[in-house]
Amino acid sequence: MKIKAGIVGGAGYAGGELLRLLLLHPNVELAFVQSRSQAGKPVHTAHPDLLGETDISFSADAAIPVEVLFLCAGHGEAARFLAENEVPAETKIIDLSQDFRWNEKTICDVVEAGERSFVYGLPELQREQIRQAKHIANPGCFATGIQLALLPLAKQNMLQSDVHVSGITGSTGAGQSLSATSHFSWRTENISTYKVMEHQHLREINRSLLYLQPEDQSNIHFIPYRGPFARGIFITAYLQTAISLEEAQALYGNYYAGHPFTIVTDQNPDLKQVVNTNKCVLHLQKHGNMLVITSLIDNLLKGAAGQAVQNMNLVFGLEETTGLKLKATSF
Amino acid sequence: MKIKAGIVGGAGYAGGELLRLLLLHPNVELAFVQSRSQAGKPVHTAHPDLLGETDISFSADAAIPVEVLFLCAGHGEAARFLAENEVPAETKIIDLSQDFRWNEKTICDVVEAGERSFVYGLPELQREQIRQAKHIANPGCFATGIQLALLPLAKQNMLQSDVHVSGITGSTGAGQSLSATSHFSWRTENISTYKVMEHQHLREINRSLLYLQPEDQSNIHFIPYRGPFARGIFITAYLQTAISLEEAQALYGNYYAGHPFTIVTDQNPDLKQVVNTNKCVLHLQKHGNMLVITSLIDNLLKGAAGQAVQNMNLVFGLEETTGLKLKATSF
Amino acid sequence: MKIKAGIVGGAGYAGGELLRLLLLHPNVELAFVQSRSQAGKPVHTAHPDLLGETDISFSADAAIPVEVLFLCAGHGEAARFLAENEVPAETKIIDLSQDFRWNEKTICDVVEAGERSFVYGLPELQREQIRQAKHIANPGCFATGIQLALLPLAKQNMLQSDVHVSGITGSTGAGQSLSATSHFSWRTENISTYKVMEHQHLREINRSLLYLQPEDQSNIHFIPYRGPFARGIFITAYLQTAISLEEAQALYGNYYAGHPFTIVTDQNPDLKQVVNTNKCVLHLQKHGNMLVITSLIDNLLKGAAGQAVQNMNLVFGLEETTGLKLKATSF
Amino acid sequence: MKIKAGIVGGAGYAGGELLRLLLLHPNVELAFVQSRSQAGKPVHTAHPDLLGETDISFSADAAIPVEVLFLCAGHGEAARFLAENEVPAETKIIDLSQDFRWNEKTICDVVEAGERSFVYGLPELQREQIRQAKHIANPGCFATGIQLALLPLAKQNMLQSDVHVSGITGSTGAGQSLSATSHFSWRTENISTYKVMEHQHLREINRSLLYLQPEDQSNIHFIPYRGPFARGIFITAYLQTAISLEEAQALYGNYYAGHPFTIVTDQNPDLKQVVNTNKCVLHLQKHGNMLVITSLIDNLLKGAAGQAVQNMNLVFGLEETTGLKLKATSF
User: Fold this and answer.
1) Which among A22, A49, A182 is the top mutation candidate for probing chain C, defined by the most C β-carbons within 10 Å of its own β-carbon?
2) Torsion angle (degrees, nearest 10) of CA D133, D137, D143, D147
3) Which residues face A169 on adjacent strands?
4) Tens digits of residue pLDDT in A77-118
5) Domain that holds residue B117
6) Is the domain of C46 the same as that of C122?
């Protein structure tokens, strides 16, 4: 079986990463990779590592009929694309922007947008709903890492006190546009914070937690940091809880037992374990009455393109890990 | 005036940094730089950037009479050195280890060690005591950055709720000994935590805070991170407080008004502003009822050798900034 | 078909990388991964990214019968292993050390070692001989990158003047042992040279060039550099030649036409195009009478474990690229 | 004595570095720091490490009378500034652009530009001429490092064969403008070449060598590399020569004996020895008949602003090292 797929917005970081994955996916036939800025050029012009991997060029047009359409067009652009283009009702859509992850009217994990319903595509939260879905809102990168750190607690109504979260992100998290804080001379060997306590991903995180634990008593305090590395997100979260380390390990182990990409380890992990993979690695510690959870993902894979492919696999009834058994870079 | 100075343990990172500073200090005459491992070799063997700066060689002996003795011998080694060597009573001692920063019997900011009293050498905490002191226990690097973030609050009895602290340290914080987590292949582009909630500097921090605010109601929750950079410490601390941002800025501004190295900025800072300087840069934000403090230092300077020289300046009645007006690396 | 494989020395960098590849290879069944230092421990103890990928543990023993034995034991250790262990005559051996790449008595690209003949495993030099071989000496990393830059010229007797080579290597090239030049504090943002004009890989390079061009008139002048990055080798080589850029591009294009991993590009390349892939990317420029060749590989893949798997594929009659279509890290 | 100084173009990398130096210089009074883009803002807006160091703001105007005017306006802009502004004849000018380093009509080391004569400001080439000069063309960064590697040979007519040069530069060499090759995601852990064999600094290098050795028989082949670090230039140069290593060391030692910033070492050096200093470190090796010279500088200091201050010191009769005894960053 080959799924006919198209990518809208294929010249950016997430689009490129998706392209790399789909080119290696055994059940995908790539119909087009659209890009306004690069139309007509071979994809290796924008993504030089793809030299020798494919002869495909960026198209200006996204109208070619496909079974699944990936939207990598950026925040705001996805909604505009769907408003301006006639996408057949039967086409599956997986959107990587934040346009359909959350809206103010929505209190459960499906966002209604006109005639379409977007299911929030975090398989560890609601895999069965994703399998039945036609349209997927792919979660944000920080949102993925933080939710995976907290879902097992929310499921058991155990979010009863404030949660203190730090998250350090690599430079690819900010995309390929040029900016002062992505200039190498500035960023190398440097650290800074941004959007302290106000990161936009908090909305989708809080919504998912309320979905699992409707009487969530916790507040999330979140400080995002810019780190001097290209790929990955390193999250720590801690909160007061009465359960022991052993109980917490059992809770997390059970919750993620059937989820192939989320792994609980009893060794102190480091970020590069997950770089260039679709994994989330979780680690638990207990210090006094504080449960400390470490959560690591690759922002471009489990935090974006990898999770999009995982969702496609679920939507089309494929084995969840198809095309996602990736060699870690490790170093 | 030239102060005759000696360094014990001059081949390590802190010793080397102290050597760089003392060679450029207008009021210091370096009598010896002792090192067991490097005795007899020119100092530029261990510190190649000093090639052309000095002809001094490491000595095996530390018995040469000096007016001030810097101990960079490592934790445990400083106490042993003083036990095994007869240091004249009038010799000033500035110890960079943790041996005299804290002990269980001490409830104020002076540690009694046999016949000697070590004054805790954080000028922003107790500059007058330092000016009168003969023996100084130079603070730890994380301890310096975290205390400078909290002292103005403690002074006003405003530590009334838990303090949540993250601190990311560069690789020089772990010294020059070889280890798996200082291997370049591992550390570059990587992040990990260590000593979560259990860092040994918490003892000296808590002691200083209790000294200023004897009924300190707060607990400090501290997660240290290893970052992929060589120099610097980036700290964030936050706590609930009723005071407004303007009040907090005034409080910090007043507290540090006469302290030349600790600067409060209203711009979001980044770590490299302080690298290769003796400065601490502080930044305040208020989000809801949370006051968020960012605190940045160079771990080898304000966090070690620079503060040691600052203390020497105070002990010998020199202008506090002498020899410490350093060009920032910036990039 | 499943090839039964064993790895001797699986705890190091090359062994770990080979393990990552073989676990994902569709035609391999891993019989054992031997390590003296790690015997009995799960492989993810040494290679934490393999957590969740396999339950295999390191074995002390390498005596389990296999069809192919990979030796990752280090220079000198491979020869010793074969001397001290009875490896059945029919077992294929792929050695990643330098023990069988070259010896003083050998003038062609097969090294006789007792009863065994080791074929030099550079597919772009002698793919047919590799297909027929039982024992393979896998080339060195610098040797691979430099040879691929020069083979098409040697094949046409065009090495008629001195060749000037610079090669910058990442830290993984020096293995996982701890040393002053692999300490993060030293290596980050730093550059140095080593083994200037005397790198040991020059022997195998010169032997291969003489094999193709027996009257090679050239000398290779080679400066290796340590670079502040973990993976990859960046090589430039230049020499005087009368041929035009177009002729050179045709020459290289033809030579590598049937070789799936070696790609000639007309765009100025950068190292990260090949990181975490088995590719070599070549780029040609002509400036005056100088032909300048850029050659990029990942030292752990095309320069070690990836090429070993490529050789295994050839030896066992598999498609050359099996298990080697890897997603580039790109960033 | 205080020299009244002004900076034109103070918001860029070289301008900022010059500002850092002049603020610490004991004999300089800064009259203005001009910047079109930042006029009216405090200098710490563009250079945040200067927070707390000075209250000066960028001025729109550069017309305030000064004794020395530093032009950091960029290539082409310096000539335009002098054409459009009336700078008094007695004002000393030190230009950091390439506008007056070389022109086609000039065969010696003074460039005539209208009524002004610009002396090429490489003290190790022509210190006496600089002492007598009113206008200085400050050398390029690569040009400085490469010339210092070759001047002693040229002085002795020993450039008799081709010189093969590699130079790896940090990202600050490309200035602060945003570009694809200065994006952190691209540059970290990456290497590439640019302007192969065609770097514009070759002109000023060749002119200086011909000045010392009018019958220079050599060609310089130069490959510049972009390296993944912020500061510094690492150069290797080699050529055939009959002299022994000892003779070469004596030759270089004698040539640089009276030059305080250029140091010949017999230990294999690394780039970070010179970072944040005004030094050039040279190292010599002999391999067969090849003399290999390593040359290291900080591109922003000895390669730009530091050398500009060195030239100012010479022009005003100060000790050459005044204000330039800088603490190396080392790590």
Assistant:
1) A49
2) -10
3) A226, A233
4) 999 999 999 999 999 999 999 999 988 776 678 888 888 999
5) 3-138+304-315
6) yes
